[in-house]
User: Which sequence fits this backbone?
């Protein structure tokens, strides 16, 4: 899973999730916790921040081993729980202006192999993709609109069109679990337990006709 630590934009605080099932917001000036959130029934695996939550005041999302994602206001007020995953929620990522009316959306990946796209403002799962046969370990929104990149314990990195539900690319080259995926411009980056980082070329038009099933092209370094 990704480290369950997230900095709060433009604030002197950092948020952490723990195996004790809790989420805490820490004051960086005093070192003391500002918030202690205890709604999960399993260790917290991942965190995200969305400044569009709670009427634009911002809030947190926490994914956990109990298969749920909890949504919190910045004040610490519990807002709602997102339920659909059948395994550990290992990774999440927020993208602004992804909804039809400019709302933010959350992508989540789980040990059940699924990638889910959420309207977390209304507790609605808007898209479910069986992304991998094994656990999804990392999720990031891609450089193009409505695209998500996933990494997995099956060693593959995949690019998805979340509007159509189609796989745009499957990049294979790692020999171990993919631990992190990132995207910047026209490239995707993946790190693995095989000790390498690989760089992948992302197609300019990541749609259903953008080279589905093409052979991967990538550079690696260790």
Assistant:
């Amino acid at each position: 899973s990704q480290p369950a630590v997230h900095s709060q934009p433009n604030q002197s605080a950092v948020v952490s999730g723990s195996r004790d099932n809790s989420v805490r917001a820490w004051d960086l000036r005093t070192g003391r916790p500002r918030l202690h959130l205890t709604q999960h029934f399993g260790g917290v695996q991942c965190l995200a921040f969305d400044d569009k939550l709670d009427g634009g005041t911002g809030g947190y999302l926490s994914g956990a081993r109990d298969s749920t994602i909890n949504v919190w206001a910045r004040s610490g007020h519990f807002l709602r729980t997102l339920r659909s995953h059948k395994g550990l929620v290992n990774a999440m990522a927020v993208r602004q202006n992804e909804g039809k009316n400019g709302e933010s959306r959350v992508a989540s990946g789980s040990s059940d192999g699924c990638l889910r796209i959420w309207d977390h403002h209304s507790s609605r799962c808007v898209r479910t993709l069986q992304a991998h046969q094994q656990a999804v370990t990392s999720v990031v929104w891609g450089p193009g609109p409505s695209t998500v990149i996933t990494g997995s314990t099956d060693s593959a990195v995949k690019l998805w069109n979340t509007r159509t539900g189609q796989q745009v690319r499957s990049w294979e080259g790692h020999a171990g679990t993919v631990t992190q995926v990132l995207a910047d411009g026209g490239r995707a980056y993946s790190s693995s337990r095989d000790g390498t980082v690989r760089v992948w070329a992302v197609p300019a038009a990541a749609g259903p006709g953008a080279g589905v099933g093409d052979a991967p092209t990538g550079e690696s370094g260790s």
Remarks:
- Residues 207-218 have pLDDT under 50 and may be disordered.
- The chain has one helix and 20 strands.
- Helices lie at 53-56.
